[in-house]
Amino acid sequence: MKNIAIYPGTFDPITNGHIDVIKKALKLVDKIIVGISDGNEKNFLFPIDERLKIVSKALYGDLKLPKNKIQVIKFNSLTTELCKKYKSNLILRGLRAVSDFEYEFQLAGMNRKLNTKVETIFLMSDVENQIISSRFVKEIALHKGDLRKFTTKSTIMSLKEVYAQKN
Question: Whole-model pTM above 0.85?
């Protein structure tokens, strides 16, 4: 039986913190479904199809991570429904700081209430990536800062393109 984990998020854009979680999870599970959410509650910089391309380029192109172990998909449902669809009983979540824990703890509890067979695994990114958030990456990109320590080359190009269009 394969151990399949769902790693849900908005990935707007993907950061080295997300990538750190994915790399660590590859050591623990057979396959990761990176689920890119198109939840209505956020004002996204990139539309869902663009985020799908950006994440795929980052993981498969820039980092050469194995396509047979990582699948990038988009979704617009409860994460527990995604677990059912892909026959997974694991949800991956990344923790950066103590401030993330309360929200993530509540989310894990709600997912557990929705499906008692689903467990949430929390992974910490390495210390140098714990301060990184998509929001900060977007702000650095907006002000034309150096993004090389925060995300991949192709993601940086996508950010530069979108902000060039806005100016």
Answer: yes
